[in-house]
Amino acid sequence: MSFLRTWIGDARDFVFPALCVVCDTAMGRGESLVCPSCWNSLEPVRGPVVEGIVERSHIEEVHSGFYYSREFQAIVHSLKYGRYTRLADKIGEYLAAVVTHHDRMRVAAGMVPVPLHPIKLRERGYNQSALLARAIGRRTGIPVREDMLRRRANTRSQTTMATAGDRVRNMENVFGTSGSAGGGSWIVVDDLITTGATANACGKALKEAGAERVFVLTAGRPVW
């Protein structure tokens, strides 16, 4: 049966070769969704993110995996809107390494994905930030608390906001908690960060619930 499945898979890939979601190149056997060349083209972010973060009163540090390039845009767009949820595991593998190399993050009490409003969650079918957090949690052992934060309002997308001030106001009092954070460090996980308004609003809610420190970990960040 194993031989038969392998033969069927090889025949399918020959007739309908898998294409990279970034460059449309036909991929070899065992490669999934993104070709090695496009993965290797991503530029990793070294050290904490400082540039562009205008709102950080409730967060200690921001860390990101990759800079927002054309290749990264195609990957994260495929994850969020193309239902290519397997991409979260590959990105999560890299983000887990970021966590384990950070003394205070690797001992975090828990990870919290930025929640979607229930309406948006039903429309999309999944929360890409939760998928990333689960992938990181599997590799680091840090508990993922998808129940900790809740979104009170179905706000306009931050990408539609004209200014950083608009983004901050759009996130005011949007998030609440459904339990006690119980002290310690917590990590907010999201796919992207720009001004920090969403992440800071999550940090505010977590600190009101008892968190001592809040770190932010995102898959990508812009090049400022």
Helix and strand topology:
Layout: H1 2-15, H2 36-41, E1 61-67, H3 70-81, H4 87-100, E2 110-113, H5 118-124, H6 128-140, E3 149-151, H7 164-170, E4 175-177, E5 185-192, H8 197-208, E6 213-221
Helix pairs in contact: 4-6
Lateral strand order in the biggest sheet: 1-6-5-2
**Helix percentage:** 25-40%
Proportion of strand residues: 15-25%
Count the strands? Answer: 6
Cα-based radius of gyration, to the nearest Å: 18 Å
What is the mean predicted local confidence, pLDDT?
Answer: 86
Structural class: alpha/beta
Q: What composes the largest sheet? A: 4 strands, parallel
SSE run: HHEHHEHHEHEEHE
The number of helical runs is: 8
Q: Which blocks of ≥5 consecutive residues have pLDDT under 50?
A: 1-15
